[in-house]
Automatic annotation (TrEMBL):
Residue stretches spanning the membrane: 221-241
Keywords for this protein: Membrane, Transmembrane, Transmembrane helix
SUPFAM superfamilies xref list: Actin-like ATPase domain (SSF53067)
Pfam families registered for this protein in UniProt: PilN
This protein's name: PilN domain-containing protein
InterPro entries per the UniProt record, alphabetical: ATPase_NBD, Extracell_DNA_Util/SecSys_Comp, PilN
PANTHER family: DNA UTILIZATION PROTEIN HOFN
Gene3D superfamilies per the UniProt record, alphabetical: 3.30.420.380
Native source species: Rhodanobacter geophilus
Amino acid sequence: MSAATPALRSLLERLRQGWRASPLPGFFAWWGGELGALLPPRWRAALAGGADWHLLQQVDGDWRLRRAGRTEPLARWSDGLDAAAQQAALAAAWQGTDPEDRRLALLLPADAVLRRVLQLPVAARGKLRQVAGFEMDRQTPFSAAQVYHAVRELAQPAVAGRCAVELLVLRRDTLDPLLARLATLGITVDAVDLAQDAGRLGVDLLPPEQASHRTRPRLRLNLALAAACVLLVFLAMGSWLRNREAALAQMQAQVEAMRGEAQQVAGLRKQLQDDAGAAGFLAQRKAQRATVLGVLLDLTRRLPSSAWLERFSLDDSGQIGFQGQSPQAAKLLDLLKGSPLIDNANFQGSIQSDPSTGKERFYMVAQLHKPAAEHAASQPAASGSAP
């Protein structure tokens, strides 16, 4: 497989930096740890995978190899041994690890690397390596052709519109002899980094043209399985959509079949509501309208015992007419004013004296009292009929 083009490497580097600068790696690491803690230890060991980083460091002419995150060395051998002996020592230390997951990082002493913290515009976040290369002459005493450099974004606060980054610079004449020595020994490194606690800092000072290109069969298998999963998901979604469409068509047919019955039921319901409303209206009107006996009872209570009625009438319009005799007929108007059933009582004709009884004969007309709602409803009709 040919090496990636510079444009593709630049794109991948921008994507990698954007991913590292986002909070997603920390979230997924925490989430994966929480999910892994729920599994039995044997399952966690079986599912554990990914890059297994080993750190190679030269101390006083000896090579020391240890696993990332641990301080005790897995192997230690002298640089004076021949290539076969050193490869054998490295292979013995790598026993029990998957060859596809083996990663080797060369750790350099801290005094071999120049580190500077810069404030760069946020717009340069996707191409920090290129911007740092342009700033090399101004920020360091070296030119870009004399050094290897790496840039990492820091989490510390920066001024508005800028981001804090750290520039790490390594002279070529320091790294090239080490890489040449390892090449003669048949040892290939995957990254060049600095030590930090029991691990590594997390940068790579290895020149891009010297980066190792590994064949990853397991990655190809995982990609094929992922593609198969995506295809199965689309097939399942398509099957689900077809089932939903079939169910929807069946439901629409049932709805069309029952629509006529629903219209008939709606018509019967409306007719029943209209009949019930009419019956309720009549019952309400009947309950609100005073009866003949009620009006007679009210007149009996209000008229004095010395007066009596000879004739009484109540028509459908609520017009009341009654005739009788009383010693003082003129006072009857005052007695009827507070009646809850009779309104607008008045004499019709003149009051005449009856010689046989010695009382005054009268004839009065009145209007049956209407409830407030009925009276308000009749007001517009009455006002509209006026000329």
